[in-house]
Amino acid sequence: MDPPFPPRYHERMSDALSSPAPSAPVPDPARLVARLGHVREWIFDLDNTLYPASNALFAQIEERMAAYMMRVFGLRRSDAQKLRREYWRDHGTTLAGLMRNHRTDPDAFLDEVHRIDFSVLRPDPRLRAAMLALPGRRIVFTNGTSDYARRVIAALGLDGCFEAVYGIREAFYTPKPLPAAYQRIFGADGLNPRRAAMFEDDPRNLEVPHALGVACVLVGPEARPDLPHVDFATDDLAGFVSRLGPLLRAAPRLESGA
Ligand SMILES: [Mg+2]
């Protein structure tokens, strides 16, 4: 079956990613205010965004996904990992590839792969304070389940930071980066993309939001500021967000000349 992405998507992305990555500069305050001053809806991805990939929480899920495929399809570990990466590449998530090609029951799969050790996560009081200082609403939008997301949020000490948490079930099992996922979640939430910013570690997942008018921040150690659909890139989410609250709250006073 054809992958659901536009035919030239991977070609365009590999072109964009083939040159050396410029490091993410600390953004100029005037540019932050110009690009994010109107934002009152803050959308956060979960895995490898609210906590760094170096915590190896999501790596546990990847291991469990591969173990599932080894058991169900009788594959060797290396072949299971290869197929898992192909499904992620071609369908947005491993689960989407399994559902499309094998009619996998999503709930049984999700329950199995989310049975992991959360103790690798530690509370992040710096991120919590930065989040709470943002003007407006904050939501989480993940390709995992919202139950899993709430456990991660609790382990990070971020309880009470988010007005809503949306997962793959709320998106009717259509994952980011497919346009229908954003239509469903943005529609269910009632958010206005033109007053929104989104933080994500997977650059693919920012293409549709960018086209809808969402300001896009790519997060992670290899986050690249030079992709056409990325407004800012940072490898320090708490540091980036902690600069925004005071800047954006001061911005209206600056504009009015007070
Ligand atoms: Mg992620």
Automatic annotation (TrEMBL):
Keywords: Hydrolase. Pfam families: Hydrolase. One of its GO terms (molecular function) is hydrolase activity. The keyword Iron-sulfur does not apply. The keyword 4Fe-4S does not apply. Residues 1-25 are annotated as: Disordered. InterPro entries: HAD-like_sf, HAD-SF_hydro_IA, HAD_sf, Pyr-5-nucltdase. PANTHER family: HALOACID DEHALOGENASE-LIKE HYDROLASE (PTHR12725:SF117). NCBIfam families: HAD-SF-IA-v3, Pyr-5-nucltdase. This is Putative hydrolase of the HAD superfamily. It comes from Oceanicella actignis.
